[in-house]
Structure formats: structure tokens, C-alpha cells
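Researcher: We plan to redesign the surface later, but first we want a full-length starting point. C-alpha cells attached.
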């Protein structure tokens, strides 16, 4: 099996490799020296392949890299300028220089030979983080990687740390090339074995931290809130108990002895069976602050997840609304979290659906560091078997205006808004031991796009896709780019059109979350219902007659979503229960919309498969074969969605398709 180079094939370094490179940097030690070593390694590899050279000293021609701690450019930032003879990248720290070097790689020949005035490029947020949901032991239901669709974990292999960790270094290099600087290595559902990463298996964490450090990446651990009792033999894990606080302090100090730049803890508490402060009558601020106090002396962070809801709901209970839960739990605590706590909030109030409203909690805690959580792994978005270019969806989230005005959601979570402290942008990784890293080779673009958007949330997803295509398929026939753009831009809309309609979500097979099962979650305890009957479908979340969830939004959205007349079509069923004959803004009835989108969506998947055939012989055979195989599955699955959904709606409504297409 040949490992695919993702977006860093040797040929992506041709422009850099042909140059004479001069490096002007002081003597460094510690992590900066390691990062500088990575920079030198990249340049040496490129120049030895393409005939360029690397020397230390002042600028001549080609590329000049300057590391000047007194340049005042800010952490991780770099300045880029070019004249027809020399392109200069300067930075105040080694990470900034590394990111600047990768910017030069991204621009290729366009980085050289022209007059470009100096511009400073800095990340929007200081924490750009990936969470791995990796287990040490293969979990009987979830496997080695929970919600993983790309093989096993890069670092764990059924009970052990892998002997060969060379791939971890190549992964960290990929992350550095897109600006990711924090990495949590284990699943937020922390089972017993994994909880010992904090104590008896700490050496493994230190080993991994050593490998990713030269790429400017800091390592985090997901910890079990109950660790003091489970690992420390204390009678309690009450966060206000002095012995518990002392246990966290001592344990954390040991972590920092082993890993001086340790990033901090990620915690899923009182969520889907994980222990938390509620058991002791304490708040989530009490819980988070206990861990924060232990980390604060060392500069560590607590990422405290807001994914807290009742997962044992009685489906007969029509008053409880899972969408309300995170806001109801957390907004009363605004201002109570320590400064090194980030409250990590999923982009939607349910669970990474193809379409759901944007979480109102993200803009409701002005005195708290709130981080945005996205999911690169495609749990509900086709599981790396369907083409689904996620940056289109993330752009919508980042560019959303919580107050309807100029301030974006990205401004809030990066601390640029008047009401917002920097909380960072975090996502669940889609990477595993798969030959292509991500199962579906085109899903590499989602990882690439996540890093780019976390660095600069204002980037255009189409431009990001072009960058990714240029790097991944350097020098390819233009038809390759055309085909990929045709398949990937709009792929979210295609997937949405053949799956659950108009923001209702789920309708997937329970547990696996793949393939259609309209009523799969309807009588379950998970709080994700659609309430279809013979007359209509949808969840009434209005203040007037429903759960009142619309009241969690700022204006204008509180009223826009409340109003059936104003609610955007694509979120109609998320906010309202309506008859099948309800007329959408598009002029179609709801039922006809369901028929049309499902037939069109499945046809669009078929077109993707046909389009892909055009690049046979123009891309690597292994890539061609893997994508072809995935497209066959996508077409099969889309047809199944189409037939089950249209038939379900036909049987429930008794209203035929006005186009007379087959229903069963
Ligand atoms: C890690 C969803 C997923 C779970 C995941 C959970 C979470 O419910 O299905 O696998 O658990 O989200 O984000 O904690």
C-alpha cells in the first residue's frame, strides 16, 4: 500500500525547490529550534529534488526567509513581500515562518517574480484544533475510532501505542501546512483504558507530543471527569472537594513534567453517559474551573463541551426539546468560567446535521471564551463514501450574522466581535490509517478546508478548493480541476436533496448514522423526532405554540424563525410543523418539494459518477479506482434514500407526485 501524499506531493514543491533560498535566523533552542529544523528539512528536500539551494545569510535572489524575534509581527504571523527578484517571508517566531513557507508552497510560481507589496498574514484565532475520537482498545460498538471512516487510529492499535509512528509525523506536517496548531489525541468518550493516558500511560502521550512538536502542534488529552475516583482512589470526584482539586493539581503537574508544552484537557461531562459535575450537585462552571485551576500555572486550556442534553428522553414527552438544552444549561453560567476555559459548542443545537439552525449559544455568552466545534469526519454527511465538500457548509456557519448586522459568527468565536472572547475553532478529524488518510480521497479537501477556514474564516470555499486541487494534482490536465469543481462545489446541496428534507435532520439508521431510516429515531430516547403523521411533519419550536426555542436567538432571528411566513425554506421543518400542502417560498408544496429534490438529488449523484469517468488516465490510478468505488456506493445509497423518502411521504400523505415518477 502506497501512502498518498495528500496535498503535499513532491511536485507541489517545484517552485520552491528551484529557488535559491536564504535563511536568516538567530540561534534558537527548545521548540522554536525544532520548528526551524522542520523548515530547513522542507527546503532541503525541495531544493535537492529541483536543483535549488539553501544557504544561511542575507537576501540574494529567490526566496529569503527571515526570523526576527523583534519584528513585532505577532505570534504565528508572517509577512510576505516580493520583488521581481526576491520573495521575502519574515516572522517573529518559528511557527510564523513555517506557516509563511507553506504559503509560498501554496502559491507556487505565483509567489515569485512579481512586485507584491508587503502584507502581514495572521491567523484569526490562536487555537485551531483537531480532536480525534480515537480509542486505545477497539470499542465493541464504535471500533478503534469512534465515527471514524478512514481505517484505524494513527497512533493506537488495539490496546497499544503503534511501534511505527512515522506516519504521525507526516500527519503533523500536513496539519502544519494548513495552520492547525492543537491536537487532542483521544476520544471524548473516555473509557477506562483511555483514562489512564493521564497517568500510567502518560509516556505514550509524551511520545506523541514529541513527534508533533516540531510542526508547531501542541498535544491535548480528553479526560474523564471521574478520574480522581476512578484512577486516584478518592471517594469522590466532586470538583469542589479540596482532595479532588489537589489530585487534579498533582496529576496535571506530572503531565507538564513529561510534556512541558501540553495543551490541556478536553472534557465531555454529563453528556451521553459520561460523568460530570451534576452528580455532585455542582455546575459545569464548577467542574471546568476545577480542571482549569490545575492547568493555569502551566498555561493549559480546558475545552469543556456544551453538548449536554437528556439522551434518555421519553419520546411521548412533547415538551422537552433537545435543541434547547445547551443554551439552557450554559447561558446562566456566563461569566463564571475561568479565563483558561473554552466552552466548546457544536455549530448546531442538535448534532452536526446537514442542515440545522446555527446554535444560539455561540453568541450568547459574551463573558466566556466560546469555541466553535465542527465535524470533519462525515458522521451524518455521507461517512466519506459520499462526496460532500464541507467548507461550503462551514462558510455558511462562519459567515452567519447572529444579530443580523455586520458581526459574523466567526467574529464572535475568534474574539473580534464587541461581544466575544477568542475561543477558537475546533473540529473532529476525519483521518485514519487509510492509504488516502481520509477513506474517500476527495474528503482530504475537507481537512484541508478546515485548516484554511480556521486560519482565515473569510476565505471563499471555492478558492480553497482551487488551492487544494492545485496542490494535490499539480500539473494535471485542466479537465481534472473542472471535473472536481463540478463534482464538489454544490455537493452539500446534492447530499441534502436526497436525504432528510428542509432542516428536519436525522432519518438515518440508528447507531451507524448511515443510510435512510425515516422513523429510525422516532420512538427512541435521543430527542431527535420529526413528528410525521398523515397531515404533516416538522418540529414546532416557536414561542407561540412550540418549545420556545426560537426565543434563544437575538433579533432579527427570534422573529424570523418564529414566523412561518419569514422562516427560510431550508429550515422550515426545523422550526415549524406544517401540512404536506404547505406552499414554500419557492412556490412548490412541501410534498412536491420532497419528491422533486429526491429525484433530482439521486440523479445528481449519478451525474457525479459519470463526470468522474472523464478523468480516467488523468489522475493516479489508485485515486481513480477509490473514488470510482465510492461513487458507486453513493449512487446506490442515494437511490435508496430517494425511494424510501418519497415512498414514506407518499404513504403518509396520500398525495401523488405531480410528475408521476415511481413510488412504492
Ligand atoms: C463522541 C454524537 C456521536 C457520538 C459522539 C457525540 C459527541 O452523538 O454520535 O459518537 O461521541 O456526538 O459529540 O460527543
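Model: Full-length starting sequence:
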Amino acid at each position: 500500500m502506497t501512502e498518498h501524499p495528500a496535498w503535499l506531493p513532491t511536485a507541489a514543491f517545484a517552485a520552491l525547490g528551484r529557488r535559491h533560498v536564504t535563511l536568516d535566523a538567530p540561534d534558537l533552542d527548545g521548540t522554536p529550534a525544532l520548528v526551524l529544523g522542520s523548515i530547513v528539512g522542507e527546503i532541503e528536500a525541495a531544493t535537492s529534488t529541483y536543483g535549488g539551494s539553501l544557504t544561511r545569510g542575507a537576501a540574494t535572489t529567490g526566496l529569503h526567509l527571515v526570523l526576527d524575534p523583534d519584528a513585532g509581527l505577532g505570534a504565528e504571523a508572517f509577512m510576505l513581500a516580493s520583488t521581481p527578484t526576491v520573495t521575502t517571508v519574515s516572522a517573529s517566531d518559528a511557527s510564523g515562518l513555517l506557516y509563511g513557507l507553506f504559503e509560498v508552497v501554496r502559491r507556487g510560481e505565483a509567489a515569485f517574480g512579481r512586485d507584491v507589496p508587503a502584507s502581514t498574514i495572521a491567523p484569526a484565532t490562536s487555537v485551531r484544533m483537531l480532536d480525534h475520537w480515537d480509542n486505545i482498545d477497539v470499542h465493541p460498538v464504535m471500533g478503534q475510532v469512534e465515527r471514524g471512516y478512514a481505517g484505524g487510529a494513527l497512533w493506537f492499535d488495539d490496546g497499544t501505542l503503534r511501534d511505527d509512528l512515522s506516519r504521525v509525523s507526516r500527519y503533523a506536517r500536513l496539519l502544519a501546512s494548513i495552520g492547525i496548531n492543537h491536537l487532542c489525541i483521544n476520544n471524548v468518550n473516555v473509557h477506562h483504558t483511555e483514562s489512564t493516558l493521564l497517568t500510567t500511560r502518560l509516556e505514550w502521550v509524551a511520545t506523541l507530543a514529541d513527534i508533533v512538536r516540531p510542526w508547531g502542534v501542541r498535544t491535548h488529552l480528553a479526560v474523564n471527569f471521574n478520574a480522581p475516583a476512578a484512577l486516584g482512589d478518592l471517594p469522590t470526584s466532586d470538583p469542589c472537594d479540596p482532595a479532588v482539586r489537589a489530585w487534579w493539581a498533582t496529576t496535571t503537574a506530572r503531565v507538564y513534567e513529561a510534556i512541558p508544552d501540553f495543551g490541556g484537557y478536553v472534557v465531555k461531562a454529563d453528556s451521553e453517559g459520561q460523568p460530570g459535575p451534576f452528580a455532585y450537585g455542582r455546575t459545569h462552571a464548577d467542574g471546568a474551573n476545577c480542571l482549569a485551576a490545575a492547568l493555569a500555572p502551566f498555561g493549559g486550556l480546558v475545552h469543556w463541551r456544551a453538548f449536554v442534553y437528556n439522551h434518555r428522553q421519553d419520546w411521548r414527552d412533547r415538551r422537552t426539546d433537545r435543541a434547547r438544552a445547551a443554551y439552557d444549561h450554559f447561558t446562566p453560567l456566563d461569566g463564571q468560567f475561568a479565563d483558561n476555559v473554552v466552552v466548546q459548542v457544536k455549530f448546531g443545537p442538535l448534532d452536526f446535521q446537514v442542515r440545522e439552525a446555527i446554535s444560539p449559544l455561540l453568541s450568547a455568552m459574551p463573558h466566556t471564551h466560546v469555541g466553535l466545534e465542527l465535524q470533519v469526519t462525515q458522521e451524518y454527511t455521507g461517512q466519506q463514501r459520499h462526496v460532500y465538500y464541507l467548507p461550503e457548509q462551514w462558510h455558511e456557519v462562519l459567515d452567519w450574522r447572529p444579530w443580523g448586522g455586520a458581526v459574523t459568527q466567526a467574529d464572535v468565536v475568534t474574539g473580534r466581535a464587541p461581544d466575544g472572547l477568542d475561543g477558537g475553532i475546533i473540529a473532529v478529524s476525519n483521518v485514519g490509517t487509510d492509504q488516502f488518510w481520509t477513506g474517500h480521497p476527495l474528503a482530504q479537501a475537507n481537512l484541508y478546508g478546515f485548516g484554511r477556514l480556521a486560519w482565515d474564516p473569510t476565505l471563499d470555499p471555492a478558492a480553497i478548493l482551487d488551492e487544494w486541487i492545485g496542490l494535490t494534482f499539480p500539473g494535471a490536465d485542466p479537465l481534472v480541476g473542472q471535473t472536481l469543481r463540478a463534482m464538489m462545489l454544490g455537493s452539500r446541496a446534492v447530499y441534502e436533496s436526497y436525504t432528510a428534507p428542509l432542516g428536519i435532520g436525522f432519518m438515518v439508521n440508528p447507531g451507524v448514522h448511515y443510510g435512510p431510516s425515516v422513523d429510525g429515531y422516532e420512538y427512541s430516547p435521543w430527542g431527535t423526532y420529526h413528528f410525521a403523521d398523515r397531515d404533516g411533519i416538522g418540529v414546532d419550536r416557536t414561542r407561540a405554540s412550540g418549545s420556545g426555542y426560537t426565543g434563544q436567538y437575538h433579533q432579527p432571528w427570534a422573529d424570523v424563525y418564529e414566523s412561518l411566513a419569514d422562516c427560510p425554506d431550508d429550515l422550515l421543518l426545523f422550526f415549524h410543523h406544517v401540512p404536506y400542502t404547505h406552499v414554500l417560498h419557492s412556490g412548490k408544496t412541501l410534498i412536491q418539494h420532497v419528491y422533486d429534490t429526491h429525484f433530482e438529488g439521486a440523479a445528481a449523484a449519478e451525474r457525479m459518477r459519470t463526470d468522474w469517468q472523464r478523468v480516467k488516465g488523468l489522475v493516479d490510478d489508485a485515486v481513480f479506482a477509490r473514488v470510482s468505488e465510492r461513487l458507486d456506493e453513493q449512487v446506490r445509497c442515494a437511490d435508496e434514500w430517494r425511494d424510501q423518502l418519497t415512498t414514506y411521504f407518499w404513504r403518509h400523505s396520500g398525495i401523488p407526485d405531480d410528475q408521476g415518477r415511481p413510488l412504492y
